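WARN retry 2 of 3 for item q-0093 after timeout on previous attempt; input resubmitted unchanged.
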Amino acid sequence: MKREIVKQIYAYAVCAIALGCGMIFLCVGIYGIVKIVAPEFTVPQWEWKKVATFQSFKTDWEKEDGAPKLTDEELKMRWQDKRAITIMSEKREGAQNLTYMFICFVIVIPVFIIHWRLAKKLREEQ
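OK item q-0093 returned
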């Protein structure tokens, strides 16, 4: 009898941990979706300030030691490239977050189901 209670506690504890992990993975996945849909919103502020406007990019470029002198047209091309890469990187990171979430759910869901069924079976046997 005591052994079954210990098994039941174990099964419920694993279920609780699996639910907690699932909630965390769900949050990571939702944030990944936001990163894909609105990458400008999720780019870190320090990085976004560098590429948000051409003027901010130009100011940062001119502050750098040893930076070659470029025309506004050349700088604008570099700014557009830097901005596109920043946004593309943010979307890629969002896709990676979604992938992590799916992989974790593939692991957590069976663990939860197995232990929930075990706990239910042990409870019915009492």
